[in-house]
Amino acid sequence: MSSKPHICKSKPHVLVPPSPYAPRSSASGVQAEKPKQRTGRPKQTARAEPIPEPLWTRLPTSLNYHAAQERMNLREFLLRFSHLSEIARGHLEELEEVGSGTLGYPDPEKECSSVSESRLATWISEPALKGIFVGLLTILSRDSELDGEVQVITKAIQGIKAAGVNLNKIWAALAALRENSSVVLPDPLPRPASITRLGTSSVALAQDASHSIVLYTAQLVPAVSALTDRMLQTKMVREDFDRAAAQEKDLSRAARELTAEENKRWKVLFDAKDGTRDSRRATRTAHKDALTAIEHAHKVAMTECLPRFAPLGRDADGRVYFVLSPGMIEREAAVDLLEGGRGEVKWGKRRGIADEAQRKRMRYWSWHLAVWGRKPKGAHVAKVARGEDAEDDEESEGWWGFWEPTEVAKLSEWLAAQYGIEIETKNASKDAEGVPIDEATKVHPTAAQDSEGKARGRPSNASSTADTSAEASSSRIRTFASLNRESSHDDHEDVRTSDSDDGDDSLYSRVDSRGQPVPRRQDLIALVWRLREYADLLNWRIKRASKESKEGAEKAEGSDKGKAVRKEEAIPTQTFYGK
Question: pTM score, two decimals?
Answer without folding.
Answer: 0.74
